[in-house]
Structures are given as structure tokens and as C-alpha cells.
Write a structure and sequence with these properties.
815 residues, alpha+beta, 5-stranded mixed sheet, 4-stranded mixed sheet, globular
């Protein structure tokens, strides 16, 4: 029978439900606001098992959620995205993660079309009507509703095998050539995970499918992972390494979920971190082994630094947090569930040792196969196995919000005095903590493993809220004491001036690249919190300027952008740029021109320095950028891929910032016509780098024209809101054209745009943001808005507390 949707109020659905043995027809009452339905039957149902059959219809929506429509120039696709609460948009279900069931999926589709679902196709029959065929898939294992998938269209695949499991990487037919790299990654990763977990990949096959319209990056549907095209497709021959790294990371992340999330699922969304934290922690592990030359540990260190900053806001949340409504659940997919949980897991692994941790992971998974688990289940398994206080450490990080700050004093005879408090990026919050002598936050102290680096091998100790020092062996050599050996600790550190000088003096010889990234991140964060000066931080930058590590210089580049945009006055900006040119010009020159077959890190380093000098208006770099960008786009609608890819990309970015209309037209054409999704998105993103107001206007009009996919609009808006040269114009445009802008945003991209307004740095714009979003609501972004306002306030404080110091430092440099 048929359930009809009429819309509005109760009794939206009315229908008969056929029973089985003793058949009863029931009626349905829909509670639209709760996204729930009640089934009513004339007679009381008998005790024991009953079968419920429900007929229903739906529409293929354009919201990128539920069973939805994805379009290309040539045809439509019907595809699914259910996490977290959208399976109910496709079919009636007990749509909660703990209510697992098996699924038998049968699809009737056009004769020329195919379909992909979680399990193997077991039969393919013509009919039931002419022009159709019926595809039946094998019964799934017990799984949560949000992991079901069915995709209909004319997908083409590349096929391979790993540990006997068939793997396919699929796309629309025109892009199947771009699936090979993802397939190679998946083959490596599957074998790695089988070995690591000691539990075999559970499904009979693995499909990975790139969809033309996709809201998130990818989705770990059991045995049928779906992707945004740019996160699965890359040209094996001409794709650059950062693109390949991204594809490999996303593939490894989603595959980790097949164990963490799909086989063993969190009991409820409040423990989402059990899914996302684990996949985040796991995603670079196989890849660091597969491609050691791609320096994944440095990426992890950069991610940790970003997460610590995110979590040092007053409005941060705890890892485990209440989430009951769909909006609250959607908002859980943030930097805390991914970045913080992943970092805390990494810290615990570093403390108890890789093999002990792996065994604990195995025990935890084995105990909850095809079922659900809680945070306690995980840390109890680790505690039992390692006999170390993992439960105390993890529970303190999972249930307390924010970041610990360790304050070290000079070493005594046999220990280092340490006190801990909560670290804030805001100088007022820091001052408040200091004024109460830390008492306001005494309840907020952590049980934290601290690994000290001295001249000997690292010493790891657990610091509890009761401890006021870390004991050291009497005979330890102490030319230097760095309090985050391995760079995995989830905390910031404040040293005595003497300790700090000793570290800086030895940074290039005694610290590893991830440790140096941590040192630099700590110093910049301390500036933002009012506990260090920007001048002192810039001295550290100059001490590290010859660092051969691209990731470190990339962090410097991003931090210097903040100094320029958040602290420097208009007059100081020129002097600041002159220092950058004088200090980093020779470093760039020493690298020389690109050479074929150079290590990846050296290419990246050259590109980063080029962009840094371009931003500082170095005349030679600007000229070179112009010349290179012209050569890259000598042919219409096509990039010249014979040139050095990294330097070419940097040249295009530098030229774009300096407003070149001819280049703009080339990129606009590429963003419209390229057949390579990565190239297309890069071109679109680069449109957000042009600063000429006339070109910014063209970009904004283009974004709301309907020509840019909903999944991509926000990427450019966020870039425009980030740049101090374009943010005012973008903000005005957004407010004046809100209906058109809003129509281009999805649930998660709306939140990204709200987040990007956190780049503002004036009282006026802060108040505008508060007022505007009070009347122009964006779903699932309440906490995001509070955080954006927090960021603006922090920036205002940063400027007022550091402006004079920067000015004095620049004056001293000029001498
Ligand atoms: Zn994930």
C-alpha cells in the first residue's frame, strides 16, 4: 500500500499496514518537529515477534542529504548520505546508532543504469516492467541505519584486490581514469589495517565511489564509501603531491571507520569522538609507512597546533557533550570530535607505547564486534591491558573542556617544579585566571602524561592535579629541557626565560621537526594569550628561518599572515614586509631553481617561501610570479603541466593576489570547464584570492549565479572572508544579497561561513555579526557563532596588547 505525504500538522501520513500471520492494517501519526512517527493499530498487538511492513514514497531532494539527486551536464544520479540523522529522509527506521539491524536492499532501476550498495549484488533480473531491471543485494551484517547506502547511475570503476578482498574505485564514466591512485592507496591501507587491528576487514568487498555533489568530504558507509570528487580522484601522472596526500588521507580515514564506527559503533552521538577521533588518529599511520618521504608526522604536528588553538577558546566544548536534537548532533562534527579526540588518543599511544596500545585497540574492538561501545569501554580496555592509568588520563581529557598550560620552574635537585592551569587564547581570560591565582579553574586540572626531553632518552611521567613537580633521575644531563618530547602532548608549555633560551639555542640540532613545530606553536599561542611578546616570537622565527622543513615554514607563513593582518598598523605593515624580504629573500635564493626529481619537502619549501615573499611584495618574486603564471596558462582552458607544479601553483596564487584580470579570466574558464575535479576546485578557490574590488565583485556574483555547486560555494566565501583585503567587501555583499547567498549553503557549509566571520577583528564587525545572525539564523551553528564572536574578541585584545611591541621590534630591526 502507499503512504501519502500531505504536509502540515499531525496525521500527515495516513495509511494501512499489512500484518503477516494475523494481519492488521495500522495508521500512522507523524510528529514532524520530532522527526518521529507513531503507528496505531485497532487491536492490541500480540506479545512476541511481529512483522511490520511499511509502504512509502519520497522525492529525490537537492539538499545533499537523505536519498538525493546529484547532477552532471549529461545526466542525474540518485545517491545517499545518511549520517547523522538522515536515513529517515529515505526510509522509515529506528534511526539511532545503537539500534542495529541487517538490511536487504533491492533496487528497481532503468535498464541502462547500475547500482552500488553496501554488499555484493546477488541477482539482476529484467523487469518488473519493461525498461527496468531489479537488483538485489546480499543481506548486510548488523549495522546502524546511518551506514546504509545505495547509489544509482552509470558509474564506472577501476578494480583491484587486497588480502583477497575485491576493491573498486568508481566515478562518473568520464573520470574513471582518475580513480587509480585511490585504488592503490586502498590496497595498501586494507592490508595494513588487517594486520594492525588483528581483525579482518569484515565485508565481502569494498567500493569507493566519487559523487559529483557531496556535502562532506567522504562518508564511511559500510563497504560502500562515498566521496566528494576532489577527495577520491587525482591524476596518477600529473596530480601534485599535496592532492595525492589528501586523497590518501581521506581514503585511510574512511577505511579506518570500517572498524571504528561501522563494526563497533558509538552507543550515542555524545561519544561521536569514538568514531571520528579514532579515524583521525589512524588516518596517517598506514600512509607514513607507505610514503615516508611525504612527512605525515609534520602534518600531524600542524594539525595538533591548530586544534590546541581551537580548543583554547572560552566557548570550546568537552569531547563528550550532550547532543539530542538533529541540530545538536550535526554540530558535533567539529574540530573537537576529530582533532582533539585524535590528538588525545595519539598522546596516550605515545605514553603507553605503540604495541601495548595496538593490543588494547584490538581487545576493545574484539569485545564489541557488530555492537556498540562507550568511552569507558575503550579506556577500560586500555587500562586493563597496559596496567597504566589510561582511564584517569582519558577521562580527564574527555570530560574537561580546553587545553592545559604547564608552567615550569627551574630544576631543583631531583625534580622540575610544574604547575598546571587552563590555557586561553584570550589575554583577558588569562589575566582573570592569574588574578584568582588559578583558583577559578582549580577544578579544571588534568591527569596528563608529560614527556621530558633532556640530553638522554625522554622521561615520561604522569602529572596529576595533586602533583607540583616531575621527578628526574639524579644523574640526568640537562643542557636543555623540552617538555613535549615527541610533540604528542596535548598541552601548551610556559618555560622560564633561562629554559626557553636553552631550547631555542638547541632547537635546530636537538629537536625533531614535529617538536620544533610544537615550540613555534606554543610561542605564538602565548603571544595571543598575553604571556609572551610578539617581538620575542619574531626572534624565534628568525632563529628558525633556515629550517629545512617545509611544514615548519608553512606554519611560520600562516603565523606571519596573522601578525600582518591582526597586529600590524597600516604604517607598520611596510616595515614588516621589508623585514620578511630581507630575512627570507636569501633563504629562498639559496634553494635555487626547481630540479627534476627533487625531494617533495624541498619543492614545498620553495613554494612556501615564494608565497611568503610574494605577500611581502618582493619585486623579483612578483615579476617571476607574473611570468610563470602567464606560461602556465599560455594555452586556453588548460594548464601547462610540464612546468614545476609546486612553483607554478604558488606563482598563480601570488599573481592572483595582485589582481590580474587576464589571469582571472583563465581561472574562471578553468573552474567552469576543467574535467579534472581537483583542478576545477583549485581554480575556483583561487578566484577567492583576487583582491581587485571589481574582480571580487565578479567572484561574488559568480558564486550566487547557480552555476557553482552548493558543495563548493562556501570554499570561496571562506577564503574571501579570511583575507583582510577582501573581507569587508564580502561581508557587505553577503548581507545585501543574503537570500541568494543562503540558497547556496548546506547545513555544514552554512556553519563554515559563520565560522569564517571569526576572522574579523573590529568591534563594529563583531556587533554586526551578532546582530546579523540573530535575525538570519543558520541551522546547526549556535556554538560556531559563539566561537566566531570569541575569535573576534580575542583578536581585538591581541591587537591592543601587542601593537606597540611590534612597532618597537620593527624599529629595532631597521637599525
Ligand atoms: Zn570520519
Amino acid at each position: 500500500m502507499r503512504v501519502v505525504t500531505k504536509g502540515g500538522g499531525q496525521n500527515e501520513y495516513a495509511g494501512r499496514i499489512p500484518g503477516k500471520l494475523v494481519r492488521q492494517d495500522g495508521y500512522i501519526v507523524l510528529h514532524a518537529a520530532d522527526e518521529q512517527a507513531t503507528f496505531l493499530f485497532p487491536k492490541e498487538l500480540p506479545a512476541g515477534k511481529v512483522s511490520l511492513a511499511i509502504s512509502y514514497t519520497g522525492i529525490l531532494n537537492d539538499k545533499l542529504r537523505g536519498f538525493y539527486l546529484s547532477k552532471t551536464k549529461t545526466r542525474n544520479y540518485a545517491v545517499t548520505q545518511f549520517e547523522p540523522t538522515d536515513a529517515r529522509r529515505a526510509y522509515p527506521s529506528f534511526d539511532e546508532p545503537a539500534l542495529k539491524a541487517t538490511y536487504d536492499v533491492t533496487l528497481v532501476v532503468d535498464a541502462a543504469d547500475t547500482a552500488i550498495s553496501n554488499t555484493n549484488l546477488v541477482s539482476d533480473q529484467p523487469g518488473p516492467v519493461p525498461g527496468k531491471h531489479t537488483l538485489r543485494f546480499a543481506t548486510t551484517p548488523k549495522m546502524s541505519t546511518y551506514l546504509v547506502a545505495f547509489l544509482v547511475g552509470d558509474f564506472k570503476c577501476t578494480e583491484g584486490k587486497s588480502d583477497g578482498v575485491p576493491i573498486r574505485a568508481c566515478s562518473t564514466p568520464d573520470k574513471v581514469e582518475l580513480t587509480k591512485f585511490a585504488l592503490d592507496s586502498a590496497k595498501y591501507v586494507l592490508h595494513y589495517y588487517n594486520t594492525y587491528f588483528g581483525i579482518k576487514y569484515p565485508m565481502p568487498k569494498l567500493d569507493m565511489v566519487a559523487l559529483p555533489d557531496f556535502e562532506a568530504g567522504a562518508m564511511e558507509n559500510f563497504g560502500c564509501i562515498t566521496y566528494r570528487e576532489t577527495d577520491l580522484l587525482v591524476d596518477t601522472k600529473t596530480g601534485n603531491i599535496p592532492e595525492k596526500k589528501r586523497v590518501a588521507v581521506v581514503v585511510a580515514h574512511e577505511m579506518a571507520h570500517q572498524w571504528f564506527g561501522d563494526m563497533v559503533t558509538m552507543q550515542w552521538w555524545d561519544n561521536l569522538w569514538l568514531n571520528e577521533g579514532f579515524a583521525t588518529w589512524m588516518q596517517t599511520k598506514p600512509l607514513a609507512e607507505w610514503k615516508p618521504e611525504w612527512n605525515y608526522p609534520q602534518d600531524d604536528a600542524q594539525d595538533l597546533d591548530q586544534t590546541l588553538n581551537l580548543d583554547a577558546q572560552k566557548t570550546t566544548r568537552t569531547i563528550r557533550a550532550t547532543a539530542n536534537t538533529p541540530d545538536e548532533i550535526n554540530e558535533m562534527f567539529d574540530g573537537i570530535a576529530y582533532g582533539k579526540a585524535g590528538a588525545v588518543i595519539g598522546m596516550v599511544e605515545h605514553y603507553i607505547g605503540k604495541e601495548a596500545f595496538r593490543q588494547g585497540v584490538h581487545n576493545y574492538l574484539q569485545a564489541h564486534l557488530y555492537a556498540n561501545a562507550t568511552a569507558e569501554d575503550f579506556w577500560n580496555a586500555q587500562t586493563e591491558n597496559s596496567h597504566l592509568p589510561v582511564d584517569k588520563i582519558m577521562s580527564s581529557f574527555v570530560t574537561h573542556p580546553g587545553v592545559p598550560l604547564l608552567i615550569l620552574s627551574e630544576k631543583q635537585a631531583s625534580d622540575v617544579p610544574v604547575s598546571q592551569g587552563r590555557f586561553f587564547l584570550s589575554s583577558t581570560a588569562t589575566a582573570q585566571v592569574a588574578a584568582t591565582d588559578g583558583k577559578a579553574h582549580q577544578d579544571l586540572q588534568w591527569t596528563v602524561p608529560v614527556c621530558l626531553k633532556t640530553s638522554d632518552k625522554p622521561i615520561c611521567r604522569v602529572l596529576t592535579p595533586q602533583d607540583s613537580s616531575i621527578p628526574l633521575p639524579m644523574d640526568v644531563g640537562m643542557p636543555m629541557l623540552y617538555a613535549n618530547a615527541g610533540g604528542k602532548g596535548y598541552y601548551r608549555t610556559l618555560y622560564t626565560p633561562k629554559q626557553y633560551s636553552a631550547i631555542v639555542a638547541k632547537a635546530e640540532t636537538a629537536l625533531t621537526p614535529p617538536e620544533r613545530i610544537g615550540l613555534l606553536g606554543d610561542r605564538w599561542a602565548l603571544v595571543r594569550s598575553g604571556q609572551a611578546t610578539v617581538g620575542g616570537y619574531l626572534d624565534l622565527v628568525l632563529a628558525l628561518k633556515q629550517d629545512p622543513n617545509a611544514a615548519l615554514l608553512d606554519l611560520v607563513h600562516r603565523q606571519l599572515e596573522r601578525v600582518d593582518s591582526d597586529i600590524a598598523t597600516e604604517e607598520d605593515r611596510a616595515a614588516f614586509a621589508a623585514v620578511v624580504r630581507r630575512q627570507f629573500g636569501p633563504v629562498y635564493a639559496a634553494l635555487g631553481s626547481p630540479v627534476k626529481g627533487e625531494p617533495f619537502d624541498r619543492q614545498q619549501l620553495r613554494g612556501t617561501l615564494f608565497e611568503m615573499l610574494g605577500a611581502a611584495q618582493d619585486p623579483a618574486v612578483l615579476a617571476q610570479a607574473q611570468q610563470l603564471a602567464t606560461r602556465v596558462f599560455a594555452a586556453e582552458n588548460k594548464k601547462d603541466k610540464t612546468l614545476d607544479a609546486t612553483l607554478s601553483d604558488s606563482a598563480v596564487l601570488v599573481s592572483a593576489s595582485n589582481g590580474d584580470a587576464a589571469l582571472y579570466d583563465r581561472l574562471l574558464a578553468l573552474s567552469r570547464n576543467s574535467g579534472d575535479p581537483g583542478e576545477k576546485t583549485d581554480a575556483l578557490r583561487t578566484l577567492g584570492r583576487f583582491r581587485d574590488p571589481a574582480l571580487v565583485q565578479r567572484t561574488l556574483d559568480y558564486l550566487v549565479s547557480g552555476e557553482v555547486r552548493n558543495q563548493d560555494t562556501w570554499i570561496v566565501l571562506v577564503a574571501l572572508l579570511r583575507d583582510r583585503a577582501t573581507r569587508d567587501q564580502t561581508w557587505d555583499y553577503m548581507r545585501n544579497n543574503w537570500d541568494r547567498v543562503h540558497a547556496q549553503l548546506t547545513v555544514s557549509s552554512g556553519a563554515e561561513v559563520v565560522r569564517a566571520t571569526g576572522n574579523f577583528c573590529t568591534v563594529r564587525q563583531r556587533d554586526e555579526v551578532i546582530n546579523f545572525f540573530a535575525t538570519h539564523k543558520i541551522g546547526a551553528s549556535e556554538r560556531t557563532l559563539a566561537k566566531a564572536v570569541d575569535s573576534i574578541n580575542d583578536c581585538i585584545q591581541l591587537r591592543s596588547s601587542q601593537e606597540a611591541d611590534l612597532h618597537a621590534w620593527l624599529k629595532a630591526q631597521a637599525k
